[in-house]
Amino acid sequence: MGDRGTQPGLTSKVPDRPPHELVVAPAGHPRRSEIQKQCIDVRIAVFIHEQGFSIDDEVDKYDSDPRATHILLRLVPSMTPIGTIRAVKLAPGKYKLSRLAVLKEYRQYRFGRDLVHALHAWVEQSASQDGVQSAQIIAHSQIPVKPFYAKYGYVNEGPEFEEDGAPHQKMVFQLQLSR
Q: Gene3D superfamilies, alphabetically (predicted)?
């Protein structure tokens, strides 16, 4: 994915982060199509141009699915999109994390962490509205970024598999809802 994190045991100072905001665009958001397009633009820059994935694999059925919520990270005041993550509600209490991407020149600021935390906050709100006690979040991680997800409590489930022409690992996080 776009955010590589750091190697375990190494500490590094994060440079001063540029001013930014997160925009959460679930179904019904008045500017959802505009936000979604900006999210896809970031994904194309990272997954197509940088990592060499196919555009046919990148834009998928969930992009227009009303169960999907697109989260955009952008600079302010320029409103330049620099990161994205997508949550798809599969069932009450069951979600899919996908399409996490941060433009290469902004990874040093660890914006991937902000995107994961924003997705977790949105899942907690959504699951609370459904009246469930916990939520399961599933991610299909590219192999090099498994440690990034592990930092947030995601654990491997099952064997590695190929998806979109690259090896992936299913990783699962159990989110206990605060009451």
A: 3.40.630.30
Give the span between the Cα atoms of 107 and 5, in whole angstroms.
Answer: 8
Indicate whether 7 belongs to any domain. Answer: no
Residues 117-151 have pLDDT tens digits of 999 999 999 999 999 999 999 999 999 999 999 99
Residue type at 142?
Q
Which domain CATH number covers 74? 3.40.630.30
Ramachandran angles phi, psi of 42, nearest 5° = -65, -45
| Phi-psi sector, 133: left (phi>0), alpha (psi -120 to 50), beta | alpha
**The Cα angle at residue 54 between residues 52 and 58, in degrees rounded to 5:** 110
Any idea how long the chain is? 179
Q: Which pair of tokens denotes residue 138?
A: 């599933």
* Residues in contact with 106: Cβ distance below 8 Å, sequence separation at least 6, in sequence order: 18, 82, 83
Find, among 64, 67, 66, 65, the residue nearest to 37 by Cα.
64
DSSP 44: I
- Strands (E) in 76-114, as ranges, are 81-91, 94-102
The predicted model gives 97-126 an average pLDDT of: 97
Q: Tell me, what's the pLDDT at 179?
A: 62
Instruction: With respect to residue 6, please indicate whether it lies within any of the assigned structural domains.
Output: no
Q: Is the dihedral of CA 83, 48, 153, 26 positive or negative?
A: positive
pTM score over 0.70:
yes
